[in-house]
Amino acid sequence: MKVKCVICDQIESIPDDSPEAKKLRNRPIHTYMCNSCNQRIEQRTNERIATGNFRLYRTIKTEDEW
Ligand SMILES: [Zn+2]
């Protein structure tokens, strides 16, 4: 099946019987992320954890409250 990355809008094709495809079919809202975006986010998350500054969700919430 064809999937679109929510971050960079890249269209990718994944095997119909892959766990990813099954997950996406079960949910109407597509939250697919391509490999490069996945890795980028993972890397960023790891960097934050490494610096002891892991406040991703709190930071977003704070900005919304402004
Ligand atoms: Zn992407």
TrEMBL record:
The protein's name: DUF2197 domain-containing protein
InterPro entries in alphabetical order: DUF2197 (IPR019241)
Species annotation: Peribacillus muralis
Pfam families to which the protein is assigned, alphabetical: DUF2197
Domain of life: Bacteria
